[in-house]
Amino acid sequence: MIKGRYILTALLGVLMLISCAPARYVLDVEMRYAPRAEVDLTDKNVTIAYGQDGIYPNDPFLKSMAEGFAWNLRDRYQSSIGKVKVSNLKSASDYANRDSLLNLLVQTGADVVFLLDKVNLQSSSFSFVMRCYDAMNQKDKVQLFTGSSVAESMSNTEEVVTQGWEAGKEVATAFEPQWKLEQYSLYYFESEDWYTALEKAEAFNWKAAMDIWMKYLKAKDQLKSACAAYNIATASYMMGDYELAERWLDYADENADLLVSPGLRKRINSRK
């Protein structure tokens, strides 16, 4: 009887340890990253200007290329971009430097200007030079982009317009935000509070989830405190506050050695 009691006591102890241990919930999230061209157009007004030094002021290919570029930016950014305008210039060479492009920004009420310039159109291919100036970029410099592509038949005006539109859409892809499906871990314990926090996180209501996790930061159980801090760090990262995320992750690491902490820290560092 005594031996059986010891065995039962030991089993109960193990079950208590298991029930008190945190579990991990994996959340699938579509994360947004900077465009390949490293020009972020989020919440910015954009002007796409074109001109051929007065030689072809109404060139259908160039005009259609600018319009295709503008359309694709609006389509991919949706509500996260400001106004996107297309402007026809008499002479592109008048806007070849930083000061002249800044004047163009003022004239069109934009934050970023793209200047399509020096488009070389042949029967089966085209090449282009494009300047970009972002007045909100701390680097404060004109960026130069070049490209080329094979074109299909352009034997009439309609085909020229179609190819110009497709060319503009293709160029725009370099300036679109990139999306990646990623997995993020959140810790939870067997209680209604922690389940509710997970539900808030699933709905991307990170502020409400953080309010719940905040209550456990001063828990006597250091592991529970660390898990709460880790979750808050994840929430801060999701909300774009990477410095705050790092501070909360530091707090978590001071209290416990969590398996997924290094992975989150790597992600935070890549965003800073």
Give a description of the structure:
This protein is of the alpha/beta class and 272 residues long. Helices cover 46% and strands 22% of the residues. The chain has helices at residues 2-20, 60-77, 98-108, 157-172, 192-202, 206-214, 222-238, 242-255, 261-271; strands at residues 23-33, 46-50, 84-88, 112-121, 125-134, 142-150, 178-188. The strands form two sheets. A five-stranded mixed beta sheet has the order 3-2-4-5-6, sandwiched between helices. Strands 1-7 form a two-stranded antiparallel sheet.
Structural class: alpha/beta
CATH architecture of the largest domain: Alpha-Beta Complex
Give the rounded overall mean pLDDT.
Answer: 86
Q: Termini distance?
A: 63 Å
Strand order of the largest sheet: 3-2-4-5-6
Secondary structure blueprint with pairings:
Elements: H1 2-20, E1 23-33, E2 46-50, H2 60-77, E3 84-88, H3 98-108, E4 112-121, E5 125-134, E6 142-150, H4 157-172, E7 178-188, H5 192-202, H6 206-214, H7 222-238, H8 242-255, H9 261-271
Give a short summary of the structure.
The chain is an alpha/beta fold. The chain is built from 9 helices and 7 strands, in the order H-E-E-H-E-H-E-E-E-H-E-H-H-H-H-H.
Brief descriptors of the model:
alpha/beta, 7 strands, five-stranded mixed β-sheet, 2 domains, Serine Threonine Protein Phosphatase 5, Tetratricopeptide repeat
